[in-house]
Amino acid sequence: MDYLKAFLVGGLICALVQILMEKTKMMPGRIMVLLVCSGAVLGALGLYGPFQEFAGAGASVPLLGFGNTLWKGVKEAVETDGFLGIFKGGFTASAAGICAALVFGYLASLLFQPKMKK
């Protein structure tokens, strides 16, 4: 049942983003920023935690989850380090995920020989 909920919620998020891309003139980069900021705001309001408990990976994997991770990192760093935590909290919370994305992206480029679009 957990897999089904994750699939449905993640698919719903993707479908809503696709509708946003089709029906507005927003560029994909701005939509991605909107998703990250929305995840951070929902986390700050305390709404993302219960949503993530319900949806599992369907809520934690998309960009909304990344925004929430940044928010949690900043919140924890501010509690421990004060004002400087605003600047370093997001980096420490998301460093492993960003590093993994870079490493696996590089490995994939070595294996599959990417080509430029024409």
Amount of helix: over 70%
Look at the structure and give the mean pLDDT: 89
The gyration radius over C-alpha positions equals 16 Å
How many beta strands in the DSSP annotation? 0
What is the N-to-C succession of helices and strands? HHHHHH
Flag low-confidence runs: none
Beta-strand content: under 5%
Gap between N and C termini: 43 Å
Helix count equals: 6
Biggest sheet, in brief?
Answer: none
Structural class: mainly alpha
Overall shape: globular
Q: What is the domain total for the residues?
A: 1
Account of the protein in words:
It is a single chain. The protein has 118 residues and is mostly helical. It has one domain. Helix content is 83%, strand content 0%. It is built from 6 helices and no strands. The mean pLDDT is 89.
How is this fold's topology laid out?
Elements: H1 2-23, H2 28-44, H3 48-55, H4 57-60, H5 63-81, H6 85-112
Helix pairs in contact: 2-5, 5-6
Features:
118 residues; mainly alpha; 6 helices; 83% helix
Entry summary:
By secondary structure, the protein is an all-alpha fold. The chain has helices spanning 2-23, 28-44, 48-55, 57-60, 63-81, 85-112.
